[in-house]
Design brief:
Blueprint lengths: L1 H29 L3 E2 H4 L1 H6 L3 H4 L1 H17 L5 H13 L4 H18 L4 H19 L8 E2 L5 E6 L6 H14 L4 E6 L4 H14 L2 E3 L7 H15 L3 E6 L7 H17 L6 E7 L5 H13 L3 E5 L9 H9 L3 E5 L7 E3 L2 H9 L1
The structure holds guanosine-5'-triphosphate (GTP) and magnesium ion.
Guanosine-5'-triphosphate binds next to helix 9.
Length: 350
């Protein structure tokens, strides 16, 4: 009888162990992610350092601050106002710049700082701490989990780099062994559909398209149905560039978003606003309005190589609570990079 009981206990232990193993395994699988940065190691080693790509911002931003501190002999309210102005000019954003300078003011009082050199290092530390805390717990880049299809919607004003970003991302995902379907929901111009088709061919991705002038929501509906039936891994939806001030165009975007949810209720899994870093503060207004139409999950900041005002990177998450996920620092595939606050801060300040 006792022996019989022992067998039952052993069987129970085995069953419970098996259940625990299954739960843990499932959880681990859910967390399996692809970082765009990890995809093409060969390409990554060829990359020019971010510091080199951001030289304009580095010299513009730091140069301005250093110059101000050199010219100013003493630490006073006037210097703080000038520093705040320099931050605003570098596109850090008014609210964020005020927050930074308020913290600096407090620190000056607390530590009784009178040396302008110490002001510079204190200011940089405040910016670093702020940004690292804004991005705490956020992994760099876009993380594609095992949801199938994983749908990414790209929006933004005209000419910011939406289609180019989709092309570069598609290449990385295809290289990582994923099946990718591009949806040509920019039906405004025939050339836009052709441009996406060229990117699809280059990347080895599929494309779902209709004629110019078709309803973009209908293109999205068909594209997602196709992706579901073909068990596609990743869907990248291109949309027409639109000014955030045009209400009818923003409503059209909202309709696209609703259509996506009709086919796949928890999609889009990423809703990315592509922003041209050279447009400065206008980016914050754009993000606010696009967020209302498509509930943004992140920002792709392109053309950071072409601006001396990379301060937008510091302000955008702080002010809008939408993180930068990718940055564009040039025209090649390797120039689309996962955004890491830590790496950005090192490139600018070290
Ligand atoms: N220097 C630089 N150029 C970029 C970057 N990203 C995109 N571009 C260029 O920006 C231009 C516009 O890119 P598109 O991808 O066509 O922009 P779009 O947002 O799709 O434009 P529309 O569909 O017309 O609204 C192209 O010449 C790209 O090569 C970047 O990170 N750095
Ligand atoms: Mg385009």
């Amino acid at each position: 009888m006792q022996e019989y009981l022992l067998y039952i206990i052993i069987a129970l232990v085995v069953v419970v162990g098996l259940i625990i193993w299954l739960i843990l395994n499932k959880r681990n699988r859910k967390e399996e992610v692809i970082s765009t940065g990890k995809i093409d190691k060969k390409e990554k080693t060829k990359q020019v350092s971010l510091q080199q790509k951001l030289t304009k911002t580095k010299s513009g931003f730091l140069g301005q601050i250093a110059e101000l501190l050199k010219l100013s002999g003493k630490v006073d309210e006037e210097l703080l106002e000038e520093l705040e102005e320099a931050l605003i000019k570098a596109d850090v954003g008014v609210t964020t710049s005020c927050d930074i300078i308020d913290k600096l003011r407090d620190k000056i009082k607390e530590d009784k700082i009178t040396d302008t050199q110490i002001i510079q290092s204190t200011l940089i530390k405040i910016i670093k701490d702020m940004m690292l805390s804004d991005y705490a717990g956020k992994q760099p880049g876009i993380f594609v989990n095992d949801t199938k299809p994983f749908v990414i919607l790209f929006t933004g004003v005209n000419g910011v780099g939406k289609t180019t970003t989709i092309g570069k991302l598609a290449k990385r995902y295809v290289d990582a062994g994923k099946s990718v379907l591009m949806v040509a929901a920019d039906t405004f111009r025939a050339a836009a559909i052709d441009q996406l088709a060229i990117w699809a061919e280059r990347a080895g991705a599929e494309i779902s398209r209709q004629d110019q002038g078709s309803d973009p929501s209908s293109v999205v509906f068909d594209g997602l149905k196709k992706a579901l039936s073909r068990k596609i891994d990743i869907v990248l939806i291109d949309t027409a560039g639109r000014q955030h001030t045009k209400i009818n165009l923003m409503n059209e975007l909202n309709k696209i978003d609703r259509t996506i949810k009709k086919v796949i209720p928890d999609a889009p899994h990423e809703s990315l606003l592509v922003v041209d870093a050279t447009t400065g503060q206008n980016a914050l207004t754009q993000a606010e309005i696009f967020d209302k139409a498509t509930n943004l999950s992140g920002i792709v900041l392109t053309k950071l190589d072409g601006t001396a005002k990379g301060g937008i990177v510091i302000g955008i998450k702080h002010q809008l609570d939408v993180p930068v996920k990718l940055i564009g620092v040039g025209e090649t595939n390797a120039d689309l990079r996962d955004f890491s606050a830590d790496e950005f801060l090192r490139a600018i300040f070290d």
